[in-house]
User: Fold these one by one.
Assistant:
Number 1:
Amino acid sequence: MHRRILVPSVLTASLLLAIPASAADASPGAPGIGDPYYPAGGNGGYDVSHYDLRLRYQPRTDLLEGTATLLATTRQNLSRFNLDFGLDVGDVRVNGRKASFARTGDHELEITPAAPLEKNKPVSVVVTYAGKPSELKIGGWTAWHRTPDGGVAAQEPDSAVWWFPSNDHPLDKATYDVSVSVPDGTQAISNGVLQSQSSRLGWTRFNWRSNKPQASYLATLAVGRFDITTDRTAKGLPVLNAYSVDLGDNAGAARASVERTAEVAEWLEGLFGPYPFNALGGYVPNVTSGFALETQTRPFYSPRQFANGANVSVVVHELAHQWYGDSVSVKGWKDIWVNEGFARYSQWLWSQKEGEGTAQELADYVYALHPADDPFWTVKPGDPGPDKQFDIAVYDRGALALQALRNEIGDEDFFAILKGWPAAHANGNAAVGDFVRYAEKVSGKPLAGLFDTWLYEPSKPAGGVGAAGAAGATGAAGERTVRADAAPAQPKSWKKIAATNAIHDHGNGSESESGHEH
């Protein structure tokens, strides 16, 4: 029999090995994810894979009660971590054990688990909370829209803070189950597919599931009284559209536009490839705002978008985002052109399909519309800054960049890029630079100079949107460009497209219309 005797140094080493690494070198997760536009946005130290939200909402009082369960993975040894949230918190549990919590700033919930968390381990976080979202103001704004019969969460770059705790940045996408109990006779609309609904004791519960990665700002909730239409596409995809029952004179135009959702999505599949999600639809609540938003699988539309009649162009814009912005999301908010330039260009392509002006005619018109001294040309779509993130130049100059690219490389490569890019980055994140490199790879041409001219130079590019930027050139698409000093005719579609210029005008209007959290 051999007995091993541990000398003190060996004993000390063995005891250290018994202590989890997290207890030895754990540190707090960062209170921001590192986005220079919004330093407080998101958090560091973990990645969320799934949100399970179990909610109860009383429209009469605007009281929202909730239990949020977050499934995540730690990315460092964590002594503490943050969630982005603004309502009152009653209890927090981490891995089933009661955790302490505190508030810092205007939307940071600091959570200290009972024991430090080890790196690369699964973790569950359960937060119970309650509050009135419309009374929560952050930076003077609220992203929660009160309606005559309920409330709506829809805003960019953030809305989650008003109704559930999250890692609130597009870099941390997750799947969602949203279960909402509301008084009988009231509906709750969210993302994805309605899995089931049931009624008990005067309340009806709606259970929604969004099964593909989704950014927190793209999660939506609408409670109220809606007229709902349902259908399936030829491929079997469920379609659900919802309209507040009290839209008044805008009701007909809203329906005439949004009911074409499946048709528009089918057309966009020809440009961008297979539709990336498990459901289609849209909703029009009775809000006073003027913008629209690409909330995943079910875009939000303000009734004012249809004040002048039906406008399918706004539906084209928001559905294009399902590929460009939702499936492929920004790495940082400075990359907003990867969302908005492509959604606007989709409107130009729809105009061409409808015989109301080609993409080239629209490009020529936009180019001529803004003289060289127009501040429009000082905005850099490739990095516009947080104050200009949703400036019209990000949309229109951003679309001009795509027409310039099309003319430079020709239709075959251009449309191969439009379809290949969402497939290459499906369910992920990408930056402007990633797109430039992808376009160079597909076309075999150096394109950094072209993108620098159209996305980054704070001045009007000389010579129009020609094949090589020369006035009077003929693009590779076979569409003639005009001279820089010409006055092209206004395309027939222009007024419809211009009517959607406020679709992301999140900063104008009353507090009920705006939500700049950070």
Number 2:
Amino acid sequence: MHVLAAANLRLDAHVIDYVLVAFYFVLVLGIGYLARKQVSSSLDFFLSGRSLPAWVTGLAFISANLGAVEVMGMSANGAEYGLPTAHYFWIGAIPAMLFLGIVMMPFYYGSKVRSVPEFMRRRFGSAAHLVNGISFALAQILIAGANLYLLASVVNLLLGWPIWLSIVVAALIVLTYTALGGLSAAIYNEVLQFFVIVAALVPLTVVGLVKVGGWQGLVDKVTNGPGGAAQLHSWPGNQLTGFTSNFLSVLGLVFGLGFVLSFGYWTTNFVEVQRAMASKSMSAARRTPIIGAFPKMFIPFIVIIPGMIAAVTVTELMGENKAALIAGKGAPSGATFNNALLLLMRDLLPNGMLGIAVAGLLASFMAGMAANLSSFNTVFTYDIWQTYLRKDRSDRYYLNFGRGVTAAASILAIGTAFIASSYSNLMDYLQTLFSFFNAPLFATFILGMFWKRMSPHAGWSGLVLGTASAVTVFVLSKVGVFTLPGQGTSFIAASVAFVVDIVVSVVVTVATKPKADTELVGLVYSLTPKTARQHATTGEDAGWYRRPGLLAGIALALVIALNVIF
């Protein structure tokens, strides 16, 4: 990015663009200020008082994930790998989101826990709770740094400010509205940001397709460029996984991404679960991820395709530049795949539309970072500070402490932003983090939820050794014991972490004492009465179109069709 700035590749913004971006910032801070009036307790601040309708939490569920990971990361992946990137949505998200709504949310919402680590404490005890709380908090700071770095990159290209100044200013804006209004401010802004992002990316995609001669023109250009025709079909995705064998590539995508990484992220990641837990009823909580699945399955068309267009039309990413980046070398132009969307905006969008697009990008990074901050402050305040360090204080004390923690997290994210800046494709960085933190947690969760015999000692030891095994795989790849291009290393690390966690948990369980059945009601599937998992079907939850099972079936049929077509 420094090279790009030095090469004077500033976006050609005019007054109208700056006015639109400034208006958006004012709107965001205004929502934070208005949401503050609804915050009178720590439950209001951390979980919106469990009062929001399903359509609001459903859109926030998706928007919280529409941060750097989705918009810049997936467009970078689109530029590098093409359509196989759609697996992160159709295989690596939708099935797990539906599983969360149908199977897992009744346990989360029904048990009235305030966070995912709190669920771990009830199921496995303090050791597993503390391990999960600390690892989750660390992951959120690292991921917030990635969102913050990309947010600063946009400000750098728009205004020409140094990266460090852009990072600090961006962090202050997100901190202000999150600290003012808590989760409600984050969620209402995420709903706004969802529409702003779509308004920014749909025109960019349409204009881009017109420039390359429509879909067929894009097909021709991609086929004749580095990467070739393999980038036009989602299966078998060899370039993405790094496997030359089609069978191993499909296996890596289905098991590594589609099962371990995907279910690990969507079903246990409190950033997402927190939005559903802010719903006003069990039915609304279950519908939250299912409603989110519908826009989620079509987002590839407005983030991946612009990346593919950038790779065949943007001078800094075409031809030998793309070939050098795919080979893991620096491009002669100094650009990276992370720049794909910004450079496409620079080349295609007229002033005014450019301002909307920049506001959309800023919206996506702010949504992602705010989601990281709002989940971090909840877990750190409730699960670490209140549980182990300062018990039995007043509710006002925890509310004020939560605001202070939000500020501290923003400062830490400024530091981790510089770690993220060292990666040419941020998806590589983020998938590595997910393999460390989410894959072993999912193994512990799924085993503990369906196997009542699993003991408290197995809960924490599986997590620790599962995470350690993923880190080991990462280190081995870095020192050259084995090398895989693409994101294959992350898929392998996640799969190894999952298997190690399961094996360790089973072995430790056999040698240790389980909890009594009476302590596991509401926490283990077989010991929870069916009535406790059911939801209301009257009042605001009435109507066939509000039935979680039916909605999930429709979403699943659509995503299967997309996999077949592409």
Number 3:
Amino acid sequence: MRKIEFLDTSLRDGEQTPGVNFSIKEKVAIAKQLEKWGISAIEAGFPAASPDSFEAVKEIANTLTKTAVTGLARAVKSDIDAAFDALKNAKYPQIHVFIATSPVHMQYKLKKTPDEVIASITEHVTYARSLVEIVEFSPEDATRTEKDFLLKAVQTAVDAGATYINIPDTVGYTTPTEYYETFKFLIDNVTSDRDIVFSPHCHDDLGMATANTLAAIKAGAGRVEGTVNGIGERAGNVALEEVAVALKIREIYYQATSDIVLNETFATSELVSRFSGIPVPKNKAVIGGNAFAHESGIHQDGVLKNPETYEIITPELVGVKKNSLPLGKLSGRHAFITKLQELGFDEVTDAEMKELFSKFKVLADKKNEITDADIRALVAGTTVENPEGFQFDNLAIRSNDDGTQTVTISLRNEGQEIIETTANGSGSVEAIFNAIDQFFNQSVKLDSYNIIAVTEGIDAQAEVHVTVENNDTGTIFNASGLDFDVLRASAIAYANANTLVQRENAGIITKKISEKANPEDPED
């Protein structure tokens, strides 16, 4: 049975989602979880895009021990050099070179002839191969490229030293039948004296990303590229968790398997959701809140008699399980540490453990029983926090005779300096946000505000997601906050979002070079 590799591009393509801006610490934490999940390669970023992206790729390359680390590069030598420099300490470095091959991209974006594109492939894949052993090549917008020219471009890359050939459905245009035929055509006609691995990279514009990816596997693809939770620009990328579980459930049909540790799926999804600020829809396949819920009486009756009547995926398969060791306010440090180990958090430092246990005791005073989801939320909210600027510290609310609310917000910086600000609002959340606006004194527009309960019940922790727009630049930022109290969670989320805006205004978050920019005009 074939073993399918998984390349995750949540930290590169996924970060192109409007509003998603992972910090370097968040990227490293996600990369470590992806390694635990069984991902074979991580596209850690586009090193030439910005100093932040370069440093993130470098940090991830320094951290991972089992997973290959890939840097994206346009067919430009300076891009390839940046990728190589960022990957110098990677145990398994890879460089991913791409150039557009469809008529519309060559004419309007690249302003290159087909012959010039072929020459660029030869030059830059050869150059990348002189620096690292493993080079991946992508003909951007492959599914809108004429087949004969696509074959020529791919063969040129293989002849120049590429080992992995990625066939991206850049705009989510293709269908499963067409994509299958494209892979069969290339696999049957590309020649090489070494093994070449083909991979799909699907966007979900027409809702067919998972189907297209599985069709490519059926045609002989050996590696899958996508993101956790399907994050990405426009309608997003293929959701890797969907492909991984589909391969498990339909293993006989696809005659393929993978190294994905499926019971780490839920924890991986939850981490990416929290750091991206994008909640997972309830009806999301595999890891959505309703994935294992049965509303229909007929369905409920069938499941009670035999779960296989309506469940093809068990909750335990993807890491959703009942508590085997319930925790409460009387639980001690040993029981807490045992629970962390049971959930796979075995790399928590002593300092982090002390902080986690302290927060656990505070939460346990407010909840009768602490669930696995509560513990995961505590860990995600403690081990990685944005250290720049001021963070939420505390709040006090007072109701006024006229029905308005007055809120005093305390914000604290790394030096433990605390600043208080007070504002009014027609409701508590409005007053909180007005106070934070008053403190940061920035032109910010709130685009969305969502509250999610981490667990069931009236005593659930609240996870608040906000999306804001920096009115001075038009940049969108997502942020989240977690707390037992929904108002505190709202304050944390909004303060985090404002910190991102503050960093952009201060030039800490810099303008990125888009990988869609013309290589001849990299400042676009």
Number 4:
Amino acid sequence: MRWLVGWSSASTGLRPRQAAPGPPPHAPHGSTPDGTGLGYGTYAPGPGAGAESVGIDDEDGGLLTPVGARLLWGGPDPLWAVGDWRPDEIRVVGADADTRIAVLGTCAATDEQLRVGLFAARGGALRHLTAWPGSYTAVVQAARRTTVLGDLAGARPVFHTPWAHGTAYATAALPLADLIGAPLDIGHLAALLALPDVPEAVHDTTPFLGVHRIPPGHALILRNGAREIAGYEPVASLAVAAPATDARSAVDGVRDALVEAVRARLDAPRHVPAFDADPGPVPGMGPHERRAARGLPAPGMGADLSGGPASATLALLAAGLPGLPGTVLGHGSGAGERLRALTFNDLSAAGSGAGTERAAELAADPRLHHVVVTGAEDALPFAELDGPLTDEPGPTLAVAARHRLRLQSGSADHLTGHGARQVLDAHPARLADLLMDRRRRNLVRPVAALTRADGSATVPARVYAAARRLARTPYRAGIESAADRLLHRTFDESPGAVGASLAALTWARPGPAARWLTGEALAEVSFRLADAAARPGPGPGQRPGEFRARAALARHAADLRVLEQAAEVRFQRLHTPYLDNQVVRACRALPESLRVRPGARAEVLRTVLEGAGVTELPTGWGAPEPGAAATAARTGLRVAMAELVALFDTPFLAQTGLVEARVVRRALRGAADGDPLPVDGLTQLVSVELWLRRLATRRGSCWTGTSPRRQRAVPEGIAPAQRGALGAAGRG
């Protein structure tokens, strides 16, 4: 894991401290730690005043420092980078002694652009700091004001918590939970299971009480320890209608944004994994297989090539851009001229050959070096239940071993197509947006596609009625309806594509795991929704389809972040250009009439490739493979049934009052026997249980220093919940 962590201290209410033996780093000789010469402040360099001795001043008189941290700047508001950051992934540019910007991640801006942006940000303009190609986190310090910017998708979140008369912040929740010794927020876990796609249910909470998250598209602004959360995206006006967007220019904007996103990765320095000395030949294994067996990626740049349009577009764009897109010169095949394209062939899933065949046809391009990774039962979901502790729970914990097997044969910098469906496809709730705009003709194509899939003549009337009802339902009424469904345990939904579309035509709906939660847990989530209904709505000009689409994107970005941590391969970086800020903005500019067409994502990406000079695409480009993930999950569930039932013999989920163990065990056996139960809901239960077990067996902390306190999250352990514990946790 990699994160940044910092602190904004208060300017008042601090006890006096003796001057440190030496000046802080980069401070004039004779200055005091807080730079005032008065001997007050909470920035406290230790003996020698080295970078590693700068820490957060505990109220008990100790000094706390992040483990394995690199100090980016000191002073009363210090900032650290923690983890295995590459040298080119951290840049700090300063305008003067009190004004500086730190950018962590992949950012295509030059130092001069960072300096110009820093001057503008000092005056309060923030949005342009998020408009450079790449995926990064920007932190701006202007005197005693610190601004931390999150991204639009939520793949790079920002967390904060009060601490020692100030505010501590980080890009991970676990370090802050360790800092304050936060207990577990059982109410948050209940909301995450009951309503995973409803941001009102979790609001700004995390699995740890007292640690809060800023929403996507917002910035955390700290002034002398006081915090403020502000959005940096323009808000739609209710008085003046937005100008109509031309479809062609919108698609051109998506193409330009994607090309710049890929170019930002290609222009970054290439990396060769350390400890890459080949110990010698192994019978039946080439150099790439030997490297993958040692858990090391190949040097240079690579990309997924699953056969779908999202990953194929990135691979073809990267291979076609000028320069050497592939491996480092002298390492690997093709003398650095070919892009390493990775395809996973699931031998345990029947009917998965169409995507593999399309990938092989695409890989016939001489600029691509095709690598096929095969997996059998050992690569099924639930095949491996051990793994690292992630920052938060997520359903991808159950399939992390499957992804790790694939990524071990990837490259040091690996492009993936994650997020394309969420930023390009139309959420079914957008049909209500079309009705609100009186664009009934645009409903013809999606409704006709659903009619062909279902074969029923009543589909158009049912879909139109559901979309019309959603268009006329206020936000508050929709949230209250979801709370009522939880209280009355109303989880019945129609099967098939039509049933899923009808269920999605709501402001909020229960998730697939809600049916297995206890009544107390559902009541707690219903209470949270009642609080959400009393708060202001999603904002002026926000419509239900757009609102649901942004919530789905945020949920996917959070799951992807869990996947990156759970399936992490040493020395490897996963890149998701579709979740870059500029790509997300370009995709949001696509008109809804274009989005709702069947196959719109494949057509948009085809146009993107044609604009980049790629015209020959295989037959079946963009054809979906329905049920592939669900089939693999059900097969993995059946193969790992004994281990999963043992996992729920005495589960932590039951101890916390969220589920009844016998009910979950019965559901697992029923799903393995073929009962029509939502396997994705069971996957969520298994993933949260795995996360709780890893959290309970965790040793150590993210902090070290002289503080007498024991700095560790969930210090009391995961104890059985008492009556009313869920309600108390949710209100904390």
